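Example 3.
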Amino acid sequence: MLHAAVLLLAICAQLTHADDAREREQLIRGALIYKFAKFVEWPAVQAGAPKTFAIGVLHDAAFAELIQRKVDGLSVHGLAVEVRSLDASSMARECRVVFIAPAPRADIEAALSALGSSPVLTVGSQPDFLEAGGMINFIVHEDTIRFVVNAAASQRAGLALDARLLKAAHAVEGVK
Amino acid sequence: MTSSGPSLRRRLVAVTLGSSGVALLVACAAFLVLDALADHREATRDLETIAAIFAYGSAGSLEFDDRSGATEVLAGMRAEPEILRAGLYDREGKLFASYRGERAGQDPWSLPPADGLDFTAATVRITQAVELDGERVGSFVVEKSLQALYAGVAVDTAVVLGVLLLCCALVFAVGSRLVRGVTAPILELAGLAREITTTQDYARRATVPEGEEIGVLALTLNAMLDRIERDTDLRAQREQLKQINAALEREKDRALDAARAKSEFLANMSHEIRTPMTSILGYIDVIRSESLPRDEMNGLLEVVQRNGHHLLAVINDILDLSKLEAGRVQIEHVWCSPQALLAEAGQLMEVRASTKGLALEIECRGLLPRQIRSDPTRLRQILLNLLSNAVKFTSSGRVRAELRLRQGVDGSAPGLTFQISDTGIGIPTDKHESIFEAFSQADSSMTRRFGGSGLGLSISARLAGLLGGTLTLVRSQPGEGTTVELRVPLGAELTELEISETPSEPSRRIDSTSAAAAVQEPLHGRVLLAEDSPDTQRLVRMVLQRAGLSVDIAENGALACELARTARDIGEPYSIILMDMQMPVLDGYSAARALRDEGFTEPIIAFTAHAMSGERERCIAAGCDDYASKPIDRVALLRLVASYSKNRDGSTRGAGS
């Protein structure tokens, strides 16, 4: 912990003012990703259920590290949270939640299709993420980080999103 | 007892009403309490539900920092007007969103209160944790007014009270009617019992009503009345028998007493008559059998004469007493002067008193009524008796008679008191009780010493009683004289009586020699004697011839009438006719009446052996002028004849006057 705190302090000291704002937004996003997990129900136990609650971060090691710091020692649905920095979308199947770092739409679609209908909550942070088939997307509204939800996508993956999550969302798409 | 009727009914109604009322009251109270508790529980549960729902729903807003969303959610409480205020707090306890109801006066709490329910008199508040995935992410606080609850309870209470009152009214109405059915027969029984107690009419019976206990009660009462009636009848009969027995017993005693008294009276009478008779017959026998010197014979004849007088007195007294005993004595109530009666008695006793050398003092003291209403004949008889006794039993000293008016004391009527005292031999104390009883002279030797029948006081006492007065012995001791007192009532109100002060009169003396002297004068004329008894004929003829009169004798009334007519026809009518009243053929009454009817005006003097009162009147009514009772007293006869001869000689008499 002390090591992490010193490291965080060192990082923070090196950051510019602009970097500070970006850093704060990233922290909020990380906390939100963790909080989303609390409002989502995954399908019944699979064979060889994992011992941890894995949150994967695809193609953004720094963010992974940030989240790792944020949720260290926390748990969701009784499982300790584990943050994994992923390089390939194939590894994302193992996780419950996957954050896909902003990328060209084709890459995003590729990553999502790799997941198929696996029960993985997909979170993104780019304007066409939901259109590409993602489930929750961060937006900035009136200088506040909010999120929008694609209920249809989560339904396809067999995930049940809590009404309170939908209520707190800036907008919900794909609701029939 | 008097108010038991209404009271019983009131009590029964009260019992019914009271028990029903208490039961209803308890039931209503229990219902109200349970109702209020249920309402309260419901209100609490409602609030808990609301808190749970809102806490759950606001978890998302808290987690995603959605203040506007949270505020919007809380605004949904408007649907529940009883919610006063609500607040949502984050995990640090800072107010995140709040709601304020229309009625709320206060802002939400700055810090969330402790978890759980909290009640005040008017509100209930709950603090509910907002949890997410087993983790507390904030607090939700909501407060609700209990006003509606209380209003509901108030309405319920009012309704229940209304129902309670209605029930009581129904119970009263129905209960009164039912109770009347129960009490009416009881009250009827009670009324009957009370009436029977008052009237003692045990013949009455209760009508037996339906209904087990009261029917039994009525039957029992009737059975009791049967018993009482029977007992009462028996007791009455027993009482009656007892009274009859007592009456019979009394009658028996009275009859026995009367029989005893009669035989005693006869024995006494026999003794009293035989004693002087013995002397008379004995002495006459002696006189006849022996030729005695004149002096000695005179002495013996005196004894005979005295015993004869005594015998006459005894017979008179016995006749008086038997009349008194038989209740045949009639008492008159006429105006008479007590002073005159006493003076007259005194005059009659004067000769005897002076012969014995006694002073006879008659005194009237103080104010006295001139006249009283009484029987003068009886009063005179009593006074003569008392004075005669006093003179008889006094050998030296004086005899004194006093008359006083006795004022009424303590409501008793005023009356007259005659007190006769003497200085005679007196009466021993142990005889005081019996001196007024018949045949009880203090000592039987008294009769021999002093003569008299011994009946005088007894007769006087009874006569005094008949006059409404008393005769009492005031004091008497042997050797110290005797005082007796006669009290008689006035017989009229004192106000009707004329009071006069009578100066005390000195004792009067009558000239006893003048009457005797008058007899000494020789008489002239013809006398007709109608008499059936040869002895009496002879006696009267002897007496009258010696006095100078010529005497014709008729043996019955018819002959007497004939002789009288003959004498008149030849122009020499009799100067006096002496007529015995009891004669054969034609009695004296009829003869006298016949002679008067025929216009005879000669004086007729009746002889009669009837010593009854009223005899004199009977004779005079028959036409006689005067009356002489047998036995004939020589001196009295001569005086009587002399007085009528004189009248005859001196003046012309009217017939029958």
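Residues 473 and 484 of chain B are 4 Å apart (CA to CA). Residues 504-518, 649-657 of chain B have pLDDT under 50 and may be disordered.
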